[in-house]
Write a sequence for this structure.
């Protein structure tokens, strides 16, 4: 039954029981040997394995980042939405065992359940193949996961970078206003000595934050 799921994930388990348990949601209320049988313990384990694997990846990739920025990247990469996207990529939804009540309330599409199950699968893989393999697997699978830094920090982060380089502060120029007054979209360009970038938003503040965020991404790519 789980052959296709293993193909989707890209890993064949030596002990299929690990994967089987990873797919049991707590709503099933199952027991085995008089113990609760679900994926919550594996989820706990997978969360820790994922956290360390991602920490290792960003530590070595973003060599200029301070601890605060590394923490923001880490939080973004292990967020629920990122895990749910990975789960959908693996198409795990049909294989999750859950109660009828949970299924009737859309359980197979809940991002929380998808994310938790993805973590349980990583925990199962760790038990089956060890940390080094699982770390490499995670870092490969997460290569294309978008790092979403909090927009509220983008402008201040950009300003700090420029100040450390003894460069002028950024200038935010309104380039265009689209639409009508009640639903206008503002196009802002951030202009600095190390580059420019455009951002669009329903307010000038949001557009400025997006522009700063995009310029930060450009700066990181060139470092």
């Amino acid at each position: 039954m789980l052959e296709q799921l293993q193909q989707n994930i890209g890993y064949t388990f030596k002990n299929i029981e690990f994967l089987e348990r990873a797919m049991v949601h707590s709503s099933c209320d199952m027991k085995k040997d008089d113990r609760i049988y679900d994926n919550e313990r594996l989820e706990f384990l997978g969360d820790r394995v994922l956290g360390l694997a991602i920490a290792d990846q960003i530590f070595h990739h973003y060599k200029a980042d301070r601890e605060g920025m590394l923490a923001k990247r880490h939080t973004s990469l292990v967020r629920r939405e990122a895990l749910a996207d990975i789960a959908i990529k693996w198409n795990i939804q049909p294989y999750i065992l859950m109660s009828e009540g949970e299924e009737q309330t859309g359980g197979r599409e809940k991002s929380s359940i998808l994310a938790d199950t993805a973590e349980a699968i990583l925990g199962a893989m760790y038990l089956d193949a060890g940390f080094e393999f699982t770390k490499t697997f995670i870092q490969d699978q997460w290569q294309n996961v978008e790092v979403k830094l909090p927009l509220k920090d983008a402008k201040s982060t950009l300003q700090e970078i420029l100040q450390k380089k003894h460069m002028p502060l950024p200038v935010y120029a309104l380039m265009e206003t689209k639409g009508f007054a009640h639903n206008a979209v503002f196009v802002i360009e951030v202009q600095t000595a190390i580059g420019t970038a455009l951002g669009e938003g329903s307010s000038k503040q949001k557009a400025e934050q997006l522009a700063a965020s995009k310029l930060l991404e450009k700066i990181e790519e060139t470092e």
Notes: The chain has a mean pLDDT of 90. The longest helix spans residues 40-61.
